[in-house]
Write a structure and sequence with these properties.
8-stranded antiparallel beta barrel, 15 strands, 8% helix, two-stranded parallel ribbon, mainly beta
Length: 287
């Protein structure tokens, strides 16, 4: 229900903006455009681990409309189709379960190490941006035509059509510490101690709609009468997490059977999807 309410609110805002733009543009020129672009995607983490690294790519193709309220300011809305793929690699995940007792009644602490954990997100999406557009007055000459600087800032609503992930743990190692004897043991395979091969699973994140802050800046080149080429850099940052409700603590996984259904491990406190890249937009002006 929460996802449905978010989608409904997002659609309402976009429809409201679209219906208002023609009123702004009645006395000012407006632009229709097509765009493409791509770049690097990654997750920004709040994590106690120092050896978490993610990298991937994103790309998009779409179109839009910019209605100007003045010569320098306007609002941009549009729609696009794109994808991102991000792979995260984590070093060793070590967790401790205290208060354990073996079959002889001796207390011990179980230390589990998950090695070679990696996770790959692959998502197709529909992108619906609503952004404020600012441009300077034409100033810089290029091939006899004056061009200008532009900047956009606003929000994007990503409707995630495919939100799958693949996770893999290469190795599980359990070792027990007996504080009463100050002794470590990790060779009793029959008791779940020692080295065990990992598992690989796949699934889907619970979030179907992702809101992102978006900004873009670059040059607007005049290509001809009422024809413009935008070329700039963009930065997108998620406003909420893809997988917060799907994670389970890494301490849940202390034997190989539990690895059959492991989800997104809670090795971080928070993860936010981000992207940077280059976008090119071809626009034509209509009064």
């Amino acid at each position: 229900m929460k996802n449905f309410e978010r989608r409904l609110a997002g659609y309402f805002i976009i429809l409201l903006t679209l219906s208002s733009l023609p009123l702004f543009a009645q006395r000012n020129p407006h632009e229709f455009s097509v765009h493409t672009g791509g770049g690097v995607s990654f997750f920004g983490y709040q994590s106690p681990l120092s050896d978490v690294f993610s990298i991937g790519y994103n790309c998009e193709l779409g179109g839009g409309f910019t209605g100007f309220v003045s010569e320098m300011c306007g609002f941009h809305v549009g729609a696009g189709f794109g994808l991102f793929k991000v792979k995260t690699n984590v070093g060793d995940l070590v967790n401790c379960k205290r208060g354990q007792t073996d079959k002889n009644g001796f207390p011990f602490e179980l230390y589990s190490t998950l090695s070679g954990y990696n996770e790959t997100h692959k998502t197709l999406f529909i992108n619906l941006p609503v952004m404020f557009h600012f441009q300077t007055k034409p100033k810089w000459a290029w091939k006899g035509r004056k061009s200008n600087f532009y900047a956009k800032a606003g929000a994007k609503l990503l409707i995630l059509l495919n939100r799958s992930y693949d996770s893999e743990i290469k190795n599980l190692y359990n070792v027990a510490y007996y504080p009463e004897f100050d002794n470590w043991t990790g060779t009793q395979i029959f008791a779940g101690l020692g080295n065990f091969p990992g598992k690989a699973v796949n699934g889907k994140t619970g979030v179907g709609v992702l809101a992102m802050f978006a900004c873009e800046a670059g040059m607007k080149w005049v290509m001809g009468d009422n024809l413009y080429l935008y070329a700039g850099a963009y930065f997108d940052c998620g406003l909420h997490e893809l997988s917060a409700n799907d994670r389970k603590p890494a301490s849940n996984y202390t034997n190989r059977e539990q690895l059959n259904e492991f989800s997104l491990l809670e090795f971080y406190d928070k993860s936010i999807l981000m992207g940077v890249g280059i976008r090119v937009r071809l626009a034509f002006n209509k009064h």
